[in-house]
Amino acid sequence: MSTRIAFLKGHGTENDFVIVPDPENAIDLSTAAVAALCDRRAGIGGDGLLHIVRSAAHPEARAMAAEAEWFMDYRNGDGSIAEMCGNGARVFARYLLHAGLVPEGDLAIATRAGVKSVHLAKDGDITVGMGGARLPEGDVTVSVGERSWPARNVNMGNPHAVAFVDDLAHAGDLYSPPPFSPASAYPDGVNVEFVVDRGPRHVALRVHERGSGETRSCGTGACAVAVAAARRDGADPSVTGNPATYTVDVPGGRLVITEHPGGEIEMTGPAVIVAEGEIDPEWLENAAH
Ligand SMILES: N[C@@H](CCC[C@H](N)C(=O)O)C(=O)O
Description:
Keywords: Amino-acid biosynthesis, Cytoplasm, Isomerase, Lysine biosynthesis. Catalyzes the stereoinversion of LL-2,6-diaminopimelate (L,L-DAP) to meso-diaminopimelate (meso-DAP), a precursor of L-lysine and an essential component of the bacterial peptidoglycan. This is Diaminopimelate epimerase. Belongs to the diaminopimelate epimerase family. One of its GO terms (molecular function) is diaminopimelate epimerase activity. There is one protein chain. By secondary structure, the protein is of the alpha+beta class. The protein has two domains: 5-125 and 272-287, Diaminopimelate Epimerase, Chain A, domain 1; 140-268, Diaminopimelate Epimerase, Chain A, domain 1. The chain is built from five helices and 18 strands. It has helices spanning 31-38, 86-98, 219-232, 237-240, 281-287; strands spanning 5-12, 15-21, 48-54, 70-76, 105-111, 114-120, 126-129, 140-144, 147-155, 159-164, 180-181, 191-199, 202-209, 213-215, 244-250, 253-259, 265-269, 272-279. The chain has an 18-stranded mixed beta sheet that branches. Helix 1 (31-38) packs across helix 5 (281-287). The longest helix has 14 residues, at 219-232. It is globular and about 55 Å long.
């Protein structure tokens, strides 16, 4: 008889994830298996998958094991690998607390973008220390239909193109990735955020995520937007010496982002576990190939 495979379902501001606890890294999660699990009709459904593995048991995380016991092996909904997921980091931490694997308080988690710090309370919002942003030089233009906008490159471990627009409806249906130029700008693809102002240091976004399509929220995207907005508003903390805090509304809720003068960015928002169950191992075996 095949071994039972547990899963959970969770979300952070409606960016939703299939959670697969696998401490010893024993489950074959091929690209096809992840895509099948994230399929909203034939699978469990999710924007992405959080594979929860002990750092010591994963070749990509072993070097971080002394600092962070648990590795977030994040995958996009199409099965592709991404460096970092901000909403995923909060849901990952929420799972560890829910499963009794860590206590409340401060926690370090390993990700492909390095070790991140999390402040975890039993109830309420979770804060993740997202590290600093990189702002690669280069002019990029993002288009939808007849309209096009200049976009700011912001790298939060993963790549983002941030475009300020007059109306979020101008982003269109976002079924497919918005074209950008030059085509060579993002050889590994990009997450594209469309942003409008809602008030002083308060913005709203829609996002097309690489590997997942339009989602209801993107944590790294919200950080990228806050960083781009601070430069646009003359509030760059490395220049002013003051932290810059932005409220970022996403279709699925609200995130609060603070960039500190030293460059560290903190993201605060909710993370919820909504269900637990078991994956049919035979189905997964067939889906994996
Ligand atoms: N939803 C995530 C970002 C997930 C990765 C992204 N799609 C990529 O490929 O870089 C977030 O909350 O940050």
